[in-house]
Design a protein that fits this description.
It comes from Aureimonas ureilytica. This protein is of the alpha+beta class and 239 residues long. It contains eleven helices and five strands. Helices cover 52% and strands 13% of the residues.
């Protein structure tokens, strides 16, 4: 069996797109006996209402609604394991949700999974240095996967979120709302230059530089100049 990282890269040729990424993940899901895949964001807060948010999947709209309606996106044991751990969470409906077709009082999550045939799966968490936390999950009807397969799919998760970040970065760069002068000013501000120093470098008045920076801050809906620089860099507007 090839490792997950190789499978991912072979299935999504450049230029990377959301469609190509989804197609690759669907292929990998089928190759490992799963029916569906999903990329979800993991909430960073511990609030009672915190829940995972869908980013990309091959779920049907009916399954997505059922997943959320039955609270699978905020199921406490899963969220606790994903936020507190770095290893894949391999599960089956009987062990994790108490699925038992003969039990009329089983949890609604278990009843939903049984009705949709999603009786096992794996959650592969990815914790980013920038504060973003996500998970790649695969669901299906087969028996629980081995530790070796789970580790391979965990590599897929890292490459999938890396590719997703690149795709969004490129989309942001193409849709850059900043003018050339606004970008120049933010780049120099990122280097610690004052408005006066930026004006000297660009041969513009300090007042004009302040106007450019104020305009950029407003476009980015930033709270101040420092926040605007951070947002612009994060979104790829300064590349």
């Amino acid at each position: 069996m090839k490792d997950g990282f190789s499978l991912m890269l072979e299935g999504a040729p450049r230029p990377w797109t959301l469609e190509g990424l989804a197609s690759s993940l669907e292929t990998i899901a089928v190759q490992h006996g799963f029916t569906t895949f999903a990329l979800l964001s993991i909430p960073s807060s511990d609030d009672a209402g915190a829940e995972m948010r869908l980013v990309l999947s091959n779920w049907s709209e009916e399954f997505r609604r059922g997943f959320e309606r039955n609270g699978l996106n905020r199921f406490t044991p899963v969220l606790r394991a994903l936020k507190g751990g770095v290893l894949p969470l391999v599960w089956d409906a009987e062990t994790l949700y108490g699925y038992d077709p003969a039990d009329p009082d089983m949890l609604p999550q278990a009843r939903f999974l049984g009705a949709t045939g999603m009786l096992s799966g794996v959650y592969c968490p990815v914790h980013g240095l920038t504060g973003f936390n996500g998970v790649l999950c695969f669901f299906g009807a087969g028996p629980p996967i081995s530790e070796e397969v789970a580790d391979a799919l965990h590599l897929v998760a890292f490459s999938a979120f890396g590719m997703l970040s690149c795709i969004r970065f490129e989309e942001n760069r193409r849709n850059n709302p900043l003018t050339g002068r606004e970008r120049d000013c933010l780049k120099l501000a990122m280097l610690g230059k004052t408005s006066s120093e930026i004006g000297t470098i660009l041969k513009l008045s300090e007042h004009t530089i302040s106007q450019y920076l104020t305009s950029a801050t407003r476009k980015l809906d930033a709270s101040n100049r420092t926040h605007a620089v951070a947002l612009a860099a994060q979104l790829g507007y300064l590349s």
